[in-house]
Fold each of these.
Amino acid sequence: MGSNHAVTDRVARLRDIVARMRQGGMALLDYDDGQTRLLLRLAPEPGAQNAVSAPLPPPAQPASAAVPSPDLGVFHATHPPASGKGMAVGDKVSAGQIMAFVEVGPIVLPVVAPAGGQIGTINAVEGQSVGYHEVLFEIAPA
């Protein structure tokens, strides 16, 4: 009897997901959490009119690239034993360049630029506690 209840629950959840997809105008859902994979591809609803729409414009280039903290820890503008000045707003960076560091106990992790450009915003100060994937810098396209 318990497995029948589990199947009923799953069917109810799937119906809810499909209803939300239709409500949001989604035609495809691909979910994977490492243990479960769910791929839903919805057909048009019966009786739905085939709408002809103008071609969509190309997607806009992102205004900036976020540079996240690699882990939670303490922000350092330069490597902890080194002294000197860290990055400043307006500095140019290259993709893959080390911009700062996050100290996690005895480990010091680099904060790496995901894209090249110019630093537009710095969101952390020396010695500040930062969270996992907290945005530390914003890089504007050069």
Amino acid sequence: MLSSDVPKPDIISSRIDEEMRSLNKTKIQIASEKIGCKPLLALAFAVVLNIWAFWTLDITYLVIWISASLYFYLFYPMLPIFLFPLRYFTKKPSEPKVSINKNDLINWARDLKIFKNKRIGFRLFMRFFILSLLPLTIGMICIYLMSVFFSLYLGNTGVIPADTSALILVQCIGIILFYIEIFFFRHHLFNFAEYVRRQKSLEWKKLIVLSILGFIFLIVGTIVVFLLLIAILLPGFTLSSFMNVAEFVRVRTDVWIFIILISQFIIMQFLQSVLSLRISLKMCNDLIFRLNDSKKYLNPGKYLDPTKCGSEDLKNDFQQIKVPLRALKETELYAFNRRQMFGLFPTYSIGVNISNLFNIKTLNELKEVFISDD
């Protein structure tokens, strides 16, 4: 149930219009993003550098690429987490900055009742965790697909031991499958609560089929967790094992590994930029559509007071007004953050709107967003 303090429909409509204006402004900004000459030259340099390294180093290049890719995974996926505090403390004076009092923060965290509402908290975390990883998917798949091919070649030709090749394959394939799962199942993960709501209006025969599908999604989710463990826990061990058997390389590879690592960073930034712009633009369009569509449930001619819902009409009106409130509350959680590392490619991440998050008194307020009605 919503709070008993339900605003008037015209107030809700005004808030929706304001949110839509903000989203349209963000949409225009994203759509107008252009990749300049400097980033494109950096990308061309990275590609040419890899071609030259392959031409010069021959088979040694394959070893260096794999080594660099393993180092790459140790730091790149964690960059958003490390950069978040930096972004907060380096905001321009013109940018809004949330003032956080230590005692207020502790009281706010206690009042959220995280353990009591752990399902909501978990789904909130997973939604933004997956959103933060989505722009990385194409780049990660490309980089580690190459590592898979190189590892197969090195293992089959006897350049590296078969067990080391197998360990690299498990690591790289685990990473690839993990990001493939995120990319192709993102719609089910984002719209799970709405997905469950829709099933309640279907016939019981369809519910049997949907239960089977739900079981399949559960199995898939278990596999995703397993792949996540592989992707997070193995890189350091794999790298250590691989570097021990890579001592056959006669030329000094330390500098080359660093150079190829930088080139992978540039290539990844380009692919992440392209995908993040598309994802953010689609997200803006989806949120605008949902907000605009939810306005049809508003009836400006009535003031809805749930404490006075004695008639079926008023009860139905109160149930209907929950739709725009739900859409509004969900939209207000999102923040579109622009980054441009080292002046290269503009990337957008979809994170939590800190200001609006601190306005939430308890996680139960987000039940309508993340948990279907019982």
Amino acid sequence: MEAAGGEMVAARWDFSSWPPVPELGLGNTCRCAFITVSLNARSIYPEVPSADHTLYIHAEQFHPERATWLASQVGLKILGEPQMSAL
């Protein structure tokens, strides 16, 4: 974040797969296994400046509960409604 300074930046991390979440009936999957952080930007595409940062958890459209589960693993919660992304 320090390297971004005040510039709008988006960084994406891809993973080999999401782990299974038995309590939600979800097996492991390699589809949409990535996260994106937007620094100094309001959206996943750094076009609109912002004073803060946003972390996007990408999950299969039919299993958005995986994102909620992931956030809860680090004591956080999802803010806002699910969004569809072309990424």
Amino acid sequence: AIGLAAQPWQLYAGVGVLVLGSSLVNPSTTGLISLYAGATEQGRVLGIFRSLGALARAFTPVLAGGV
């Protein structure tokens, strides 16, 4: 929806919603993953989770540009 903004205020509102959602979801999912991972495997599991998130943030613009 951000790409369809016709006015600057719509862009700012869309980015604000995106930032708010991201700031709520990222800590929550990290906390849940740390709760479900065992004490000996927390580092590995959280490292994999954050690495996959970084890869997704890197490749999403490339994939979205192809659409």
